[in-house]
Amino acid sequence: SYGTAMAYVATHNGHSVMVYARSKEVVDGINKNHINPKRFTDVKLPDSITASTDIKEVLKDAACVIHAVPAQHTPDFVGKFKDAFVKGIPVVSTAKGIHVKTHRLMSEAIPAALGDRSEEIPLVFLSGPSFAKEMVKGHPMAVVVAAHELKMAQHVQKILSSIRFRCYASNDVIGVEVGGALKNPLAIGAGMARGLGFGQSTIAGLVTRGCREMRQLAIALGGKPETLAGLSGVGDLMLTCFSSLSRNNRCGMALAKGKTVVIHD
């Protein structure tokens, strides 16, 4: 969903976007009907969005690569296609979370997966309050793009930022990643509180204390505390903790009502 949404907002500045998809059905749906048959089937995609099952074709002439694979699958995906990435072309990761098997943030997991190519591929990390459903509806929103070198974050900012999708640049990769990762369990907790019948006062307390814990962990890992007061911290946390559109929030509510989680490999 988020990959389709990012393709949609990336066209706002007049960019042509090519989407990589494993399914020929999805590729044909986008190329022939301008609809993703598996995501947002009621949304007509711009003509400037095309798709292919050939990763090399997708990456060949790209000025910027948006990586929208879930965090738990990111290292395997990047490792599989690492030779296809073009030297010097930034890869913008939208994956939020900690890779469970290795206990790594994406800023650690992706370079490890790239191996000897890690120095050749600039990495940028996008985070902030942005639901895919609202992105494809054209709702105004703001996110942050972070890179170890601020110039690279600013480069991506210029490519992606538009009137309805405002990007702010940061060089605090750790702070941005911690905010994006830790809001997930906190949103589950907020959902559990709601599922147990508790009100906004309870959830406000959870969110406030959660903000402090996020800030403490970010500092311990080398991040900047002020980053957690921004879009990737408080911003994303408020969105996921107070909105029923959040999958983590809905998961918490379901757990509180006695349902169980089934994990699929």
From TrEMBL:
Record-listed substrate binding positions: K96, R247, N248
Secretion signal, residue range per the UniProt entry: none
One Gene Ontology cellular component: cytosol
GO BP annotation list: carbohydrate metabolic process; glycerol-3-phosphate catabolic process
Domain Glycerol-3-phosphate dehydrogenase NAD-dependent N-terminal: from-to ranges: 1-152
Entry EC no(s): 1.1.1.8
Enzymatic class: oxidoreductase
Keywords associated with the record: NAD, Oxidoreductase
Catalytic activity: sn-glycerol 3-phosphate + NAD(+) = dihydroxyacetone phosphate + NADH + H(+)
InterPro entries reported for this sequence: 6-PGluconate_DH-like_C_sf, 6PGD_dom2, G3P_DH_NAD-dep, G3P_DH_NAD-dep_C, G3P_DH_NAD-dep_N, NAD(P)-bd_dom_sf
Chain sites annotated for binding NAD(+): A132, R247
Entry annotated with the keyword NAD: yes
Record GO terms (molecular function): glycerol-3-phosphate dehydrogenase (NAD+) activity; NAD binding
Domain Glycerol-3-phosphate dehydrogenase NAD-dependent C-terminal: from-to ranges: 172-261
Catalytic residues (UniProt): K183
NCBIfam families per the UniProt record, alphabetical: PRK00094.1-2, PRK00094.1-4
Family assignment from sequence similarity: Belongs to the NAD-dependent glycerol-3-phosphate dehydrogenase family.
Record's protein name: Glycerol-3-phosphate dehydrogenase [NAD(+)]
